[in-house]
Amino acid sequence: MVLRLKLKLAKKIIKSKSKVDDPSIPTDIDSLFSILMDLPDKDLEFLEKIKSNVNFLPTTSNDRNRYNSLCNHGVFSLADNGSFLLTDLGKALIEEIDREF
Fold this sequence. Notes:
mainly alpha; two-stranded antiparallel sheet; globular
């Protein structure tokens, strides 16, 4: 199930790539799918859970670990104030996850 979801997300992000300015997001399906395959399933589930948040501040140590993992995978970057900011990849993922669920 998660494998198919990751492939579907990769295909949709590639289709909407023209809206994304971040050159670090691959333009070919294989490279983007590889990035999403490296993303732990629990992190993808966590991203789905927090997709409607306005501020991305962890409230528990488990949340902090998830944010750090997502940061390591290029979905978030760490701001100076300790909050997490969505990258273009993160924005594209949340946009497509929001459409899926």
